Amino acid sequence: MSTALRTRPAAADVPVAVKRRRRKSYLLTGLVALFAIYSLVPMAWLLINATKTQDGLFTSFGLWFDDGKFALFSNIHDTLTYQDGVFVRWLGNTVLYVVVGAGGATVLATLAGYGLAKFDFPGKRGVFAIVIGAVAVPGTALAVPTFLMFSKMNLTNTPWAVIIPSLVTPLGFYLMWTFSAEAVPDEILEAARVDGAGEFRTFFKISLPLLAPGIVTVLLISTVATWNNYFLPLIMLKDPDWYPITLGLNAWNAQAATAGGQAVFNLVITGSLLTILPLIAAFLLLQRYWQSGLAAGSVKE
Amino acid sequence: MLVFAFVFLAPIAYTIYLSLYRNQLVGGNSFVGLDNYTKALQDSQFWSALGRVSLFLVVQVPIMLALALIVALAIDSGRLYGKAFFRVSIFLPYAVPAVVATLMWGFMYGNQFGLVKNINDWLGTTLDPLAPNIVLASIGNIVTWEFIGYNMLILYSALATVPTSLYESAEIDGASQMKIITAIKLPAIRGAITIATIFSVIGSFQLFNEPSILRPLAKNAITTFFTPNLYASSLTFSGQQYNYAATVAIIMALVTMVIAYVVQLRGSRDR
Amino acid sequence: MRKFLPIAAVALLSLGLAACGGGDDSSDSSSSSSGTVSDADVTAALEKGGDLTVWAWEPTLKQVVTKFQEKYPNVKVNLVNAGTGNDQYTALQNAIAAGKGVPDVAQIEYYALPQFALGKSLTSLAGYGADALKADFTPGPWSSVTSGGTVYGLPMDSGPMALYYNKEVFDKYGIEVPKTWDEYLDAARKLHKADPKAYITNDTGDAGLTTSLIWQAGGKPYTVDGTNVTINFADQGATEFTKVWQQLITEKLIAPISSWSDQWFQGIAGGTIATVATGAWMPANFTSSAPGGSGKWRAAELPQWTAGGTASAENGGSSLAIMDKGTNKELAYGFMKYANDGDGVQIRVDNGAFPATTKQLNDPAFLNTEFKYFGGQKANEIFAKSAQNVVTGWSYLPFQVYSNSIFNDTVGKAYVSSTTLADGLKAWQEQSAKYGTEQGFTVK
Q1: Domain C161-313+371-443 class?
Q2: Closest by alpha carbon to B142, among B220, B71, B56?
Q3: Nearest CA in chain C to B13
Q4: Which residues contact A151 (CB under 8 A, 6 or more apart)?
Q5: String of DSSP letters for C158-216
Q6: C75-117 pLDDT per residue, tens
Q7: pLDDT band (50, 70, 90) for residue A297
């Protein structure tokens, strides 16, 4: 990578705008469009079926609207008010878990990843192996022992039971580590140290801006991971008041299969739609930031 | 680090401890040493689960990564109309919770009334995505759908950090696009490819959410020992065989670690 | 019993955390389970009040709790839906294992009750005078809450079986309501021939349905005597079942659709699934989940294995039981009795539940209820009759939850490959026996 950077001055006389002036290709666009269709068809299905009533779901074609009946708004209304508006409560819980859990996870991963990448200490490779090992241990295996431990500490059935485990993301940690190693050149840190800047000052003034794209990426990943968290809350939480939205939706889906239960597939589908909308919105917002962060990151010398 | 120890190391230690015991409904708890490990290594259900995820690994992971790479290169090439739209729409499935994604595909996979039925009627075929010999591919499809965008993002962001000057000069020298890709772009993002591979490998070995949520629809095709994780979880939750499940989990973790390590070595060797 | 010291030990070793908690659950039911509790004690507890945690997914309990709290204002009932069926049992097992967060009362299905009873997780109700309530309940559910001569729960609902059929479809193709399973097979052939899209029923292998039909056929695959267990799927009842069902599978006469899936409800509402053989609790599900079939469906007596017979069986149904680790058991018993034997029953029946109590089952108002979904038919008469005719002597395994969980690994093969149903059942028997042996039972 460093040799690559050094070649740049030699190519400085090449017009910078070349990339932007590339010929567009219909063929390539068509090819990628196929992928986009593949990605979007299930979304379209979700959107379309969120407009149907429970009965309409069973009687109309899956990828088109139910004739005459457009129940999206009544579905949204029902979803939000069903069982005394518990859906809103679940949404709030999920947001809480994301803000505290994913936010905290990002901070921890950034600090730990940066620290490990930029400071030498004995046993570094050992720590690395443990981290990779931690990623490899199946979550299902840890869930029950973690449950038993938390239970002893009276943490189960509280939000902490979900938040504490999601604070640690070996994946984010790993990404921050590799990213710090590459994005923050040691020379700059050396220079800052020579100039007499303290470690904290160096971190906030120099490293943090350079790390921004990495941080946003980790934030994105841990947000999605927390938002989608299913198995852990399933074990930890028994009180529906603390359910995140995924667990709640699955409970609604399972409800059809009980004596006297009511199938509410239309609410499950509408609820699913409402679940992913904020995430998509968040992604679009973050992406803008992420793009500019990326631009900043690419001017790295 | 303290949190890390609390959330990971302690449960791991406890899992190892559990794996050395046996607890019976009748007869209680007793220390059995490595008996559970011997049992697991002779357990045909465990091996079939391991075989299944290995098959999944060697088929689904390369396909998914290759597709993700193609898309990433295409978007990076700057030769697309509506590049931003494609990047966002292909990434979107990643934002869909696995629970929701599987429910959705499950609805669509229905060959009696679902979307697949409509397609079958139209093409005159009798495909059943939930049949025992096909269901693994169907799960592969769900996983691919969920994660193409994610891997694309990793690769694309790596591509974006490759200085444009590098291949612009090569372009001026008359190198073909293919040549630029293989000679310049791919080597430059080797690290990102390695990361994506490692996490996909780990993901395949831990395959759990999709089969377990799809199970009510295809309970004969997706057995309780369909993947090692599903096996461990059914042992724990239906059979209360915490100890044996812990053993299976530990063996799986070891296998995963070894493979992840090998990929890591290969990826970093010639960098 | 599971020991908990090790958890604390591990936590202490690795973290220096976790206050010692090893001594709090040293032995089994040392509390009130052996002593006697009189009705007066229970009433006193109800008057005094307190907090009660109930884990149940039964929807009608919500109204019961409201009324209960009106009657006993000092009692605060915390009704928690901790998951349906297996999910809740998992949660329950976890809580029992951890020794914390165990509810006072839990809903447990009949097939799972022996497992919890054997694991000493439940309080014996003998000391509460529950034996005297025997006459209040129909025989099927009562024998289901009795394990080894001891009562462990009070029946909440029951599922005497009936055959639900789509009359519109039957009339269209001139099909008679089958009286025997052989006629059922003929009806299946006739229907599928007339309309290749329509099936007599759906089945992808269901442990509950299979065991219930074997039960109806007089089979007794499980016998349980303490920790001595026999499993035998080669008896007369099982053979009769496989004979007919194998034909249905081989000739592809049953829709390969799993019950409770969206496709299933579609089939019920749309007329492509013509019958469902299941418990008497089903009408509420029909009404709420497949409204499209309203008016078209009817209930009938379950087809017979022997012409002219009247045999029936239970499918599903659940009880409430007091957890051994729960607190305030008198209060718990008071609530259970209210919900399952007292005023609560009528509240639940009014909301669509099917009772297990003889009082309600013989109540003219109950019997005369007209079901709109069944075109005004008085279906409860059929169900009540079915409840009287449940074959006696059936028992489930003390590890039925696990056994059912591997049903589709073994018997399921018969639905998707050339394995026969009989071979599938045999494999199921072997795997269940293997598990039983591993768990320390003597399995024959």
Answers
A1: alpha beta
A2: B56
A3: C10
A4: C94, C95, C98, C99, C100, C101
A5: --BEEEEEEHHHHHHTTPPPPSBHHHHHHHHHHHHHH-TT-BSEE-S--HHHHHHHHHH
A6: 999 998 887 888 888 888 888 877 778 999 999 999 999 888 8
A7: very low
More confident of the two residues B118 and B193: B193
CATH no. for C31-158+318-356: 3.40.190.10
Distance from the Cα of residue B245 to its chain's centroid = 21
Structure tokens at C407: 């049903």
Could you read off the pLDDT of A201-240 as tens digits, one per residue? 778 877 888 787 778 878 877 887 887 777 788 778 877 7
* The domain over range B44-269 is classified in CATH as 1.10.3720.10: yes
CA–CA separation, C304 vs C294, rounded Å? 27
**Considering the entire predicted model, what is its pTM?**
0.79
DSSP letter assigned to residue C141: H
Q: Helix (H, G, I), strand (E, B), or coil: what is residue C224? A: strand
Among C13, C261, C399, select the one facing B216 at the smallest CB separation.
C261
pLDDT of residue A138: 62
Dihedral angle sign, alpha carbons of residues C82, C84, C85, C86: negative
**A294 touching chain B per CB within 8 A:** yes
Q: Please tell me if residue C440 touches chain B, with a CB cutoff of 8 Å.
A: yes
Helical spans, DSSP H, in chain A: 2-7, 26-49, 54-59, 72-96, 103-118, 124-136, 139-152, 159-166, 170-183, 186-194, 199-202, 208-228, 231-236, 245-255, 265-298
Report the residue from C18, C281, C285 with minimal CB separation from A152.
C18
B window 160-219, beta carbon within 8 A of C = 216-219
A286 touches chain B (CB under 8 A): no
**Domain residue spans in chain B?**
44-269
Tell me the C-alpha distance between C427 and C421, whole Å: 10
Q: Which residues pair with C107 in a beta bridge?
A: C320
DSSP letters of B14-34?
HHHHHHTEEEETTTEEEE-TT
Q: β-pairing, C318-322 with C222-225?
A: unpaired
What are the helix (H) ranges across C260-399?
262-270, 282-289, 329-340, 343-350, 358-361, 364-367, 379-388
Q: What residue segments make up the domains of chain A, in order of their start?
A: 68-298
Cα–Cα distance measured from residue C419 to residue C423, given in angstroms and rounded to the nearest whole number: 7
Structure letter (DSSP) for residue C270: H
- Quickly name the fold that domain A68-298 has: MetI-like fold (1.10.3720)
Residues in chain B with CB shorter than 8 Å from the CB of A227 are 95, 97
Residue A1 pLDDT level (bands cut at 50, 70, 90): very low
Identical topology for domains C31-158+318-356 and C161-313+371-443: yes
Q: Are strands C318-322 and C105-109 parallel, antiparallel or unpaired?
A: antiparallel
Question: Torsions phi, psi of C257, nearest 5?
Answer: -125, 135
Q: Give residue-wise pLDDT tens across range A49-102.
A: 888 877 777 666 666 776 666 778 788 888 888 877 888 899 899 889 988 988
